Amino acid sequence: xxxxxxxxxxxxxxxxxxxxxxxxxxxxxxxxxxxxxxxxxxxxxxxxxxxxxxxxxxxxxxxxxxxxxxxxxxxxxxxxxxxxxxxxxxxxxxxxxxxxxxxxxxxxxxxxxxxxxxxxxxxxxxxxxxxxxxxxxxxxxxxxxxxxxxxxxxxxxxxxxxxxxxxxxxxxxxxxxxxxxxxxxxxxxxxxxxxxxxxxxxxxxxxxxxxxxxxxxxxxxxxxxxxxxxxxxxxxxxxxxxxxxxxxxxxxxxxxxxxxxxxxxxxxxxxxxxxxxxxxxxxxxxxxxxxxxxxxxxxxxxxxxxxxxxxxxxxxxxxxxxxxxxxxxxxxxxxxxxxxxxxxxxxxxxxxxxxxxxxxxxxxxxxxxxxxxxxxxxxxxxxxxxxxxxxxxxxxxxxxxxxxxxxxxxxxxxxx
Length: 416
What we know:
Layout: E1 19-27, H1 34-42, E2 48-50, E3 63-65, H2 86-102, E4 114-120, H3 125-138, H4 147-150, H5 155-164, E5 170-174, H6 178-191, E6 196-203, H7 208-215, E7 245-253, H8 254-259, E8 266-275, H9 287-298, E9 307-309, H10 316-330, E10 336-338, H11 350-365, E11 367-368, E12 384-385, E13 391-392, E14 397-404, E15 407-414
Parallel strand pairs: 4-5, 4-6, 9-10, 9-14, 10-12
Antiparallel strand pairs: 1-7, 1-8, 2-3, 6-7, 8-15, 11-13, 14-15
Helix pairs in contact: 2-5, 6-11, 9-10
């Protein structure tokens, strides 16, 4: 049963709280901060190259989108370094950047009025592998006690809470769509009365353990040429290239943001998630339903959407299914479609969150960033792909899509 909305003293219904994005924090293979990343995607600079974090020679896949080397102690307190996986370090850096970008003063709000929701699909795999190697080779006395939480799915939400002293509603979502789902969950918190939520996802699994797990999907590209390995919607598509990074964003209630003079990037106007039907049922995948439901939730018609940020699996069957869903909703070549992740690789849970940040930047700057390396699109009469160079245009409404093992999520962003 839905809650009744109380009337104002004058008999009118108060405006439903609106969730707007006021701060972005990006850490990506082709940009160590938001400005560097945005410049890279507008100029088609990719961050995919041969793996350096470990020797990939013995593996069939050798390419990844890695975040550049950095001095961790310049960003993370020294006491935290031995406690944290690469994933958590990148999350803390992105969250700090999002707070700075929003000009939010964390001390100006009661500690229980800031929520935190993060997505994570794999946990702290690099830390886990290192400590398990100690267990096998040296014995249990050499295993760090910090392993008890450094691997855990909820660790990023907890570490952000500790770092900033925020003790409002918290949560963690899992799976490769969870960066998008976390942002939608932040919207729910705002609608329920919370003024500020830190949300998003940043992820890293650049270690042999993570690599071996990913190889079992059979969907990683084994092409060694970094310009040819990840080609979504291309006739030469051979799989995806994994990467690390993502984005954290500050979500605020619109009136709260307005009251402190913040300039929002976008509004989180609609969201939906669906499951695919049972294999062999002959029913269509659930992505189209997710798109239609998200548009309905936002009160937006298909002809009002200015751009779609595609999931872009890089796997022929999945790309065809996504193209069919987009075409079913918007018509053939009915909306520009882009996938800047061709420059970074697929960042697990961090990818959809990064797409939300990129879409928000598109709305602010009036330009759609391109996808790169795709030269022979499958059914070019079906999708209006933004290829090779940016497309300058007004972006008032953007649709962001994400898929993961039978789950489909869609978020609609509108001009705030």
